[in-house]
Specification:
The complex is a heterodimer of chains A (288) and B (237). Chain A has eight helices and 13 strands. Chain A is α/β, with parallel strands linked by helices and 288 residues long. Chain B has 237 residues and is mainly alpha-helical. Helices cover 76% and strands 0% of the residues of chain B. At the A-B interface, helix 2 of A face helix 1 and helix 4 of B.
């Protein structure tokens, strides 16, 4: 299988510091590569190198032409005066899609991302999370060969993050190679995983491939924050159990983790915490 | 080309505050100046030169902002020909300049500041001012190409505008140095003043300089902006 993008012996030094050293990376077409790691470890810099925006200090990069790369950095690139529908449609047309096709794809993407109701509002008036989603849509709109997405689910609620993940996985299924820097790998990993998909961890200038994404989940100790009544918490627990998670409510711990407001039928504040254990036992985490 | 034009026009129309300020400053000044001065016609050539320099300022600031926010790299990552991209960058500034100069001449005519002119000379004044704005926008693009942020572009273009105003012979007699004649404001003021009957008609040399500035400067400025932005995002086409 030919590679979409390849880095060979890639070294990046910035400000006298080596961000990564002699790194080799190959991304296959139609694959999902999740790039995880703590803040400041070089996830965004690696994406910028893959996008061609940061020149390597040493080594080589082979990548598709710029117009075949969809790139959504952390700071979304939007035209604030235009509506989401206008900018997506115009971007599609600038990439030589017929007007009708561009409009059709734009409306479909906006619907999938939960932005259909905002499609006629100026982008500059949208919330940060909505702008984030629109930035991601602009990256995948022209059906690129390679899409590089920096934290596409950051600042999104659970539902919106799942919708974005589903939309991106659909792009992968259509043949786009996705490289996603994320602190929320669990949004993308099982049950959506494919053989060519990988989870990479960047730390101390090195990339490590995680064979079992579950290990990553265990290391990441994901925390789910839920705000609502006791009834709402019970409902969330039921959904989690249905998905194979074991949920254990620990009312005494929650107040130290989060403050939970009054729900519709609660009548007074409810505090509870929940601990989840993956059904297979390869991941543990705390959900509250 | 059509979606590029559509994008440029939509963005121009949507930012109403910026549009009104760019288009309205010079005409409002013309009206205000006439209200407080009995014989105001002498100011018009200077005002049109100032209005032309506004194109440089707005082009530099708009392009630097687009580089900084990443919308210019987004546009340059589309498979559109460079010439189309350059034309789309220039179009909003030419349109606002055309409207602004036309309104300025209209305001001046309405307040009696065009006593020695014919419709032809007013139309030629408009064309000369528009040519000046094209050249001025090109200088603005070049400023944006060589600065790293919006604030740097703002400061550098302010400095250049100030120097051009000083060297244009508006406030003081124009310095007698060959380099001054290379500035777009130099032939511009001469040509505008000649058409408005405020000075002897400009010769062929001035006309040639105006045309050369109007064609070369926007092309060079836009090309510099595009190539330097592409290089900055690793796209060396």
């Amino acid at each position: 299988m030919s590679a979409v993008v390849t880095l060979r012996a890639a070294t990046l030094r910035r400000g006298g510091r080596s961000l990564f050293h002699a790194l080799d990376l190959t991304i296959a077409p139609g694959s999902l590569t999740l790039l995880c790691g703590d803040n400041g470890q070089g996830k965004s810099s690696l994406l910028s190198v893959l996008a061609g925006e940061l020149p390597l200090s040493e080594g080589s990069r082979e990548a598709p032409p710029r117009d075949r790369i969809g790139w959504s950095p952390q700071q979304s690139r939007l035209w604030p005066e235009l509506t989401p529908l206008e900018q997506l449609t115009l971007l599609g047309r600038l990439h030589r899609s017929p007007e009708r096709d561009a409009w059709g794809r734009a409306t479909q993407l906006l619907r999938s991302a939960g932005l259909a109701e905002q499609q006629h509002r100026k982008a500059g008036h949208l919330s940060g999370g909505m702008q984030r989603r629109l930035g991601t849509l602009l990256a995948v709109m022209p059906r690129p060969t390679l899409a590089l997405l920096d934290e596409p689910t950051a600042h999104l609620d659970v539902g919106a993050a799942s919708s974005m993940a589903a939309l991106l996985l659909e792009a992968r299924d259509e043949g786009c190679a996705l490289v996603v820097a994320t602190h929320d790998p669990d949004v993308f990993v099982p049950p959506h995983r494919r053989p060519a998909d990988r989870v990479l961890r960047i730390a101390d200038g090195r990339l490590t491939e995680l064979q079992e994404p579950g290990r990553l989940l265990a290391e990441a100790t994901p925390t789910l924050r839920v705000r609502g009544s006791h009834a709402a918490l019970t409902a969330v627990g039921a959904i989690a159990r249905r998905d194979g998670l074991e949920v254990e409510l620990e009312p005494a711990r929650l107040s130290s983790l989060i403050g939970i407001g009054n729900g519709s039928g609660g009548g007074g504040e409810t505090h509870a915490s929940a601990k989840t254990n993956h059904a297979t036992g390869d991941a543990t985490g705390a959900a509250s | 080309m059509r979606p590029l034009i559509q994008l440029a026009l939509l963005r121009l129309a949507r930012d109403r505050a910026a549009l009104l300020l760019t288009v309205g400053t010079a005409p409002l000044f013309a009206l205000g100046y006439a209200a407080f001065n009995a014989a105001p016609q002498g100011y018009l050539a200077s005002l049109l030169v100032f209005s032309v320099l506004m194109s440089q300022f707005s082009a530099a600031v708009a392009a630097a902002k687009e580089r900084e926010t990443g919308t210019l790299p987004l546009l340059l990552a589309t498979p559109q020909p460079t010439a189309f991209l350059a034309a789309a960058l220039l179009l909003p500034h030419l349109l606002t300049a055309l409207i602004s100069h036309a309104l300025t001449l209209l305001a001046a005519g309405g307040t009696g500041a065009l006593p020695k002119t014919t419709p032809t000379s007013v139309a030629l004044t408009l064309a000369i001012s528009l040519a000046g704005s094209a050249a001025s926008s090109g200088v603005g693009f070049a400023v944006a190409a060589f600065t790293r942020s919006l604030i740097h572009a703002f400061l550098l273009t302010s400095l250049l505008m100030f120097l051009q105003l000083l060297c244009a012979g508006l406030l003081f007699p124009a310095p007698d140095h060959p380099i001054v004649s290379l500035l777009p404001t130099h032939p511009l003021r001469e040509a505008v003043a000649g058409q408005l009957g405020l000075a002897p008609k400009a010769g062929e040399g001035v006309a040639r300089a105006l045309v050369a500035h109007a064609l070369l400067m926007p092309a060079i400025g836009a090309l510099l902006l595009i190539t330097r932005t592409r290089a900055a995002v690793g796209d060396r086409r």
